[in-house]
Amino acid sequence: MFRRPGADRLVPLPGRGSQGQVTAVTSILNAGRNYWARSETHDAGVLVDARDYYRELYRAIRKARRSIVIMGWQFDSDVTLLRGEDLEEAHGGEVRLLPLLDQMCRENPELHVYILAWDFSMLLAMEREWMQHLLFNWTTNERLRFRFDSSSPLYAAHHQKLVVVDGVQAFTGGMDVCDCRWDDRDHPARSKLRCDSGRDPHGPYHDVQTVLTGPAVKPLAELFEARWAHSGGGEIRLEPVARDDVSFQATMPAPPGPVAISRTFGKTILPPQEEVQEIRALYVDAIAAAERFIYIENQYFSSRAIYDALVKRMRAAGRGRLQVMLVLPRQPEALREQIAMGVAQVRLLRALREVARETGHGFAVYGSAAKGEDGSDVFTYIHSKVMVVDDTFLTVGSANTTNRSLGLDSELNLSWEAQAPGDAVSKAIRRIRVSLMAEHAGLAGVSALRPLVEADALVETLDRVAQEGLLRLRPHPLETVFDQNPLFKPLEPEDFLIDPEESVLDESLFEALHKGDDGLFASGVRLLSRWLVGPSCDAPPHRAILPCVPAQEEGGTAGP
Question: Which InterPro entries does this one have (predicted)?
Fold first, then answer.
């Protein structure tokens, strides 16, 4: 069923199923529930892996005239944007992030640069570049401004990744501009190009970003304006610049037509901000609508809401059999994540596997690996956040399939939806999905890719490739750090605080403290918050972090 913009009734849309019968497409996108704004693009593309993203970011920075705004979870000043043969494009010029931005400001007196980074928890201090506030603000041009944003709810992180150039071009997705992220689509076991800041080269790394131009850039620019003001940076206005040289070279074209923008943000009391869980609703609605298959590649899988949605769909009476495929890292990067996130992830995935067996659905979890010099597997770290349903729905963004990403952290996703199977949007989504699957599997050539295109037996096809072990695809071991060392098994924890859905401090606590803001207990809460999240910001209390931009629809508007 397809919900026409502004309509309250469901209208069947004709399509063709795998057996040739007429089918109906269920509209997933729902204004005000699972997306905030929906706008057309002039052009849009998908950038797979950091080589393609960093190259296009470099080109956009070089062309900027008035403004460059960047926000993210993490930054590093000396990340090299061009590497290998791509360096020829720079003609010996600067290719490191901060020196490049500084150079552009010095060359162009009209250019202003704003960088907004999450004011990270002390738990991450040893993994971050030190003294960034001084490095970014005191060693560069005065028109380059850097701020830490500590306005997130207690125990939450600002995880949105966004770049807007001149108000006319935007990048968003899973990628930050920081160390240990660069890779190309070949993902060799070792590469000298994967070297940052004098470190030894890191391992294979996979991620996905989107790039777009046109009306859809405006709400993204306004989101940055609100975030900057809320952090205490003051009011800025990112007016679009009239340019005829805006272009990019994407890995693949994004689907044509309008793109929907969805967000997550946890509830805060001071300053007041209601929670926004559009991405959570987006994932749940997409799973409920699935008729043939669900493809997910993500950094984590520990969301109870996504687990429940998959179980509900698998057990739904009278619905067709699904094929559900996940591509995940072999295990989380850091030991603390392996302990806190990895255990919950493995428990949920094992349970889903059992439900799929009981109900007759196809279900498989994979990793991707290259052979090292000693013949051992070197797994690619999956950092992307992508979901495809039935080749009629695609979402790409920053949100992990975890409780905190869908309920507490700030997140940002873009989505496209076809109106009927086989239309131009559906074909573009299929090309993207097949290309990503082929990258993980190590498949190439028309005959090898044909089973992925047809999508009639995807799990069977991928299982065969993974079990053979001759290419890149591997069955995911679904094991935890405790499984790997039986001596640690008795220490395996039952519950974790690292992946909450809601803020640790709820409204009732704040109401209890309202009349005693200067009391000892209230002061202790503030100190605890600063220790966990960082120093409080000096943002005006009336400023809302989420701008009220109407959801843009074809032929009309609707409230956010």
Answer: PLD-like_dom, PLipase_D/transphosphatidylase, PLipase_D_fam
**Distance (Å, whole) CA 496 – CA 343:** 9
Dihedral in degrees, nearest 10, Cα atoms 397, 247, 436, 319: 60
Nearest to 259 by CA among 166, 395, 161: 395
- Mean pLDDT confidence for 29-54: 97
DSSP character string of 312-356? HHHH-TTPPPPEEEEE--SS-SSHHHHHHTHHHHHHHHHHHHHHH
Beta strands in 435-475 (DSSP E): 473-475
pLDDT tens string 303-341: 999 999 999 999 999 999 999 999 999 976 655 555 656
- Model confidence over 448-492: pLDDT tens digits? 999 999 888 999 999 999 999 999 999 999 987 665 566 555 555
Q: Is 436 helix (H, G, I), strand (E, B) or coil?
A: helix
Q: Where are the alpha helices (DSSP H) in 94-192?
A: 97-107, 132-138
Q: DSSP label at 254?
A: P
Nearest CA to 246 out of 164, 169, 167 is that of 169
Give dist(CA 133, CA 154) in Å, integer. Answer: 22
Residue with tokens 């508007």: 557
Distance CA 378, CA 43 (A): 36
Give the residue among 186, 143, 195, 168 at the shortest CA–CA distance from 44. Answer: 168
Measured from the Cβ of residue 363, the count of other Cβ atoms closer than 10 Å reads 21
